[in-house]
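Researcher: Next entry in the queue.
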Amino acid sequence: MTNYTLYAGTAGQSVWQSTDGGETFARKSAGLFMEAEVRALTRHPNYSDTLYAGTDCGLFRLSPDSGTWEVIPTPFSSPNGFQNGTLIWSLLIHPQNPDVLFVGVCPAGIYRSLDGGNSWQKLAIPLEENCPPIVYNRVTKLLADPDDANTVWVGVEIDGLWRSRDLGESWERLSEGLSSQDLHDFAVVPGSPRTLLASTNNDLNLSNDEGKTWQPQNVRASFPNAYCRGLLPKADDPYTLFLGNGNGPPGTVGSLQVSRDGGQSWQMANLPQTPNSTIWMFATHPALPNLIFAASVNGYVYRSEDGGASWVKCSHEFGELRSLALVV
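Model: Structure for this entry, 328 residues:
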């Protein structure tokens, strides 16, 4: 198999790196606060050895030459690389135009750069910043539409789904019929019409009209639990999807659901050990579409090398995981 590196972003222990398929990890935090919270890891679409990290200390880029994280100044950057009051929860480097970067933050807001991170603008999207149960809302998902380079989708916990058709200049809210405004992840399945999928704290939701209306799928009837988190389309087959499930945030038990028909039906993956919490996140790479990593928020990492047909549990366990990225 092609050589690859798996990166793991933790809550309070910075970034870790594995070069043996997730069996062992070593800290990879030079240049970062060693106890940073790393909720977003994103690779550059054109330079496979360049990685971005969204943290509670700001935005960082891993230099392939020095192996050291370098800070990218933003309007909310901390002057000393320590924690600040604006936390990064999601990142998007536009796949067709990598000079366009979006950063989703908590309290809920979006910053955009059109010049590769040299300058930034806070976008005029009227997100709710506060919610009594969680105090501060956050942007949990940023996705470039696979069929329209000017369209960006945004999921907010807790403020539903938003769409921009002009790279962030204007926005519309598309949340009618969602089972909950607590939106965790989002995916687009091709077709005519396309199928949109949105995971929330109490269901999986489906739309066939580009998000104008949503139909909850009542996963409680077939899944072990209703809480849905991460969504991953397979890199070479968008009709195959992986969905993280569990009994809450973080939860005490999780499951991994797999669809081979664009989200119309699901089957639970046979994991070698029951997850200790909700399956929260995934990692894959277009160069290795059958290699998939899934992880629970409380630190179990699973690996599949056959497109999700079978899984192994990796030896290393973390305290709390928040993000994964695969670099080839």
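Model: Residues 282 and 294 are 4 Å apart (CA to CA).
Researcher: Noted, moving on.
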